Amino acid sequence: MEMLTEKDVSELKTKAKQIRKMTILSMGNLGVGHIGGAMSIVDTLTLLYYRHMNIDVNNPKRPDRDKLVLSKGHAGPSLYSILADKGYFPESWLETLNKGGSRLPSHCDMNLTPGIDMTTGSLGQGFSCSIGMALGDRMNGYHNTIYTIIGDGESNEGQIWEAAMAGAQFKLGNLIAFTDYNKMELDGYMHEVMDISDITSKWLSFGWYVQRVSGHDFRELDWAVQNAQAESQRPSMIILDTVKAKGFAPGEGQVASHNMKFDLKEAEDAVAVLEKETV
Amino acid sequence: MKEMRAVFTETLIELAKEDERIVLLEADLMRATGTTPFKEAYPDRIVNCGVAEANMVGIASGLSATGKIPFASTFACFAARRAYDQFFLSGNYAQQNVNLVGSDPGILAALNGGTHMPFEDIGLMRNIPGLVVYEPCDGASLAALVPQAKDHKGCTYMRLNRKASPAVYSDGEVFRLGKGKVIKDGSDLTIIASGCVMVPEAVKAAAELEKEGVSAAVIDMHTIKPIDAELIIEYAEKTGAIVTCENHQVINGLGSAVAEVLGENLPTPMARVGINDLFGQVGDVAWLQEAYGLTAANVKVKAFELLKRK
Questions:
Q1: Spatial strand order in the sheet of A146-151
Q2: Measured between alpha carbons, how far is A126 from A120 in angstroms, rounded to an integer?
Q3: A125 in contact with chain B, both atoms CB, cutoff 8 A
Q4: Predicted-complex ipTM score
Q5: Predicted structure pTM score
Q6: A126, A237, A278, B236 - which has most CB atoms within 10 Å?
Q7: Maximum CA pair distance of chain A?
Q8: Of residues A132, A271, A27, A104, the one with CA closest to residue B47
Q9: Is the CB of residue A139 less than 8 Å from the CB of residue A146?
Q10: Which pairing describes strands B156-160 and B181-184: parallel, antiparallel, or unpaired?
Q11: Burial classification of residue B289, based on how many CB atoms lie within 10 Å of its CB (0-12 exposed, 13-18 middle, 19 or more buried)
């Protein structure tokens, strides 16, 4: 296993900061957005897209590419920032986020946005789709990986647990899932709304290869992803301890950040605060 | 007479020989839907999802995203009601090619009773943009239409009777998805029917009407969406009265689809035979047909009432 160097970590942190800035500004342009869940998953998305995923911006539909299903589809704006940065579409598109006629809708749409691998938005559904994609690409004889990200609030959905059983039943070693465990859902803390209780035991008991790491520590994250890649018989669940709205000062760690109003000036102020954080 | 489920499975096995993209999904109903021979023929191309229809439709959508052509099969009540959001969004909205098969539609759920009796599935499905909704009435039309669904770009929903249905057509008869089939011509009124229960009853009713001096055309409208507007208008012009017959609610089913076409193009006196805003109940098919008026006798009564309004 190759560990991340100091330089790798520094570069990833710089990139994640850039992605956060782009995302905050794109939402600020509109005046409202799902900033909380978008920010909490930036580090994971950054690690996957800049270090692990075998994808080709010049051939975005290459059948045997690695694929990512953002089942918590409301975090789409973070992914759009990454896809724009990688050149899947012009960065100017970010200013159109969620506006009429935009190709960047609030929830991911594979038919509108280049680089998006699955349409998501009704929680729980993307996770089942990722099971199907892992099955399909295994039937196709590909040696790729399907990555999928679910929310902790999303895990209230029964469909998540139907898919959890299926992933283990079908021994999907080519599927690596993440739970963005920021402990909050729209109406409050999870333990107040619908407690997920012992999340690690749940996934273990469903027969998955389970790891739990900080979702904001690149070394831990990368180590977990590499472990998951080495697992060939079971699907992997990496539980990410995250902070909702991480890096967006006005909402960081707050329940209200799930879908928050803020204008461009507030976005720019938040970006200025983020700039001052040491990498 | 061959059971419809056997025809479906044989058709799928034949198609799978030539097209390796075909995958069959089940939700722990293989022994009921009769697809076990597919599993024997293609053990690596069947995905049994257990009793989890929503997940099955999601998995089918994911398979489609990797280039597969999935057929997902379960009882129509679960296909339409339980997995609707998944079929709507992961399947249709995401522009996948998911072929959803709902067996035991309407009163054909018979001994499973009201809980398993979908009278509203066509209505639900008809509201999904671009979806093809069809209901073959016998083995020959089933065998002819399934390959077309396989080749259709986009999702399809098929209502399937699992049991044997009396043959309406000879083997090898030609059908086209989206095009109604004129079974019998006529000049006084037109009976437009769909499915295994009502197409044979419509044929029977037309024969009886003939004896009483009424010339009734019969159309098998096997594809409910897209509806064959051209044929409906042609026969409305020709006969001036339309009776629709369906094993489904009269609300938002075949009758509604026909009424929409006529209302906007050629307002024509109509009568609708179907379920009149009721839930299902347990019973055998013959008993249920009587209970809900899904009989040739009722079609005849409605036809005579309609002729007075012509």
A1: A67-70, A146-151, A175-181, A236-241, A209-214
A2: 5
A3: yes
A4: 0.96
A5: 0.97
A6: A126
A7: 50
A8: A132
A9: no
A10: unpaired
A11: buried
Which chain A residues in 219-278 lie under 8 Å from chain B, judged by CB atoms? Answer: none
B47 and chain A: CB distance < 8 Å anywhere? yes
Residue found by looking up tokens 């333990």 in the block = A191
Distance from CA of B110 to the nearest CA of A (A): 29
The string of pLDDT tens digits covering residues B123-182 is: 999 999 999 999 999 999 999 999 999 999 999 999 999 999 999 999 889 999 999 999
Residues B55 and B138: beta-carbon distance below 8 Å: no
Cα-based angle B98, B101, B105 (whole degrees, multiple of 5):
145
From residue B130, give the alpha-carbon distance in Å to each of A3, B93, B133, B153, B252.
50, 9, 9, 10, 16
**Catalytic pick among B10, B53, B120, B246:** B53
- For the record, the structure tokens of B186 come out as 């006529």
Find the residue in A nearest to B55 (Cα): A128
Q: Are B258 and B227 in contact (CB under 8 A)?
A: yes
